[in-house]
Here is the input.
Amino acid sequence: MAEHISVFVENKPGKIMAITKVIADNHINLLGIAISSSGEFGIVKLLPDDIGKAYEVLKQNNYTVHKRNVVIVIVDDKPGSLHQVLLILSNANINVEDCYGFVLAGGRRAAIVLETDESREAEKVLADHHIRLVSNEDMHIL
Here is the structure.
């Protein structure tokens, strides 16, 4: 199982930079990031290489942070790869609440981060379909 961190933040200039400064000052590498805004506030979702350390340093700097289980899959970077993953989950009646992704070094594969309330079931279903999964311990491959 993998996790990512959500940081609740005011939607003002410099707020995201302040978060990335804390991460950078503590020598944590960000593998992925997604930002969503809703008026005066937003959520910054971080996929750090060291989730425990990132969570602790953000809390120590008074950020409202939350760790959440996510499903991370590795797919070929080609048309239809994301669709195939979503089709498998849809056929299993698993709802995907949010997702983001990024191309991995070399450009032939991509990592897709999926948020669902049914992470364990989603991993089981995807593994049954031979979809490659990433756990917190496997983050170094990203």
Summary: Helices lie at 15-25, 51-60, 81-91, 119-128.
